[in-house]
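Per reviewer request, we include the raw input and output of the structure prediction for the construct analysed in the revised manuscript.
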Amino acid sequence: MLVETTDLYSYAERCVKWQDDKYSAVAFTHFLYHSHAQNRVTEEEVRALCRSMPLVDNYGGVVCDWSGVLVPAKGSKCFGLFRSNPWRGQGSGDYSLADTYAGVHTQENHLLSFMRTHVGASDVPHISPPNAAFPTAASPLTRENTLLLLE
């Protein structure tokens, strides 16, 4: 058995390649969040790891190749305008929930703030629309949807 000494960034770089299920991908995001919060990795290292880490979408699927990330539907005012998710296939899992991994607790919405800053997660009004139909556009607007559009 070979024992090797490594730093946290090199360890994380190796781990990110093995995130192929929902639990592992979310656990890795928590690991990276807490490593950054404790200044164990630099901003540059966090950015590099965030670009290559897989994300969990709202349907529980792991997305390894993503070009943009939406905030979860629970954190978005604009998802009320759509009856379906035309951005399906992009990372958009619910990272807003409080959770505990490896005995370390993450407060509600802290991980989402980390995702906005380091992964570039955006709400619907701040991204380019997909080339897809919106079923809501063919029906009358509700009062709530009208206010969302005006906002």
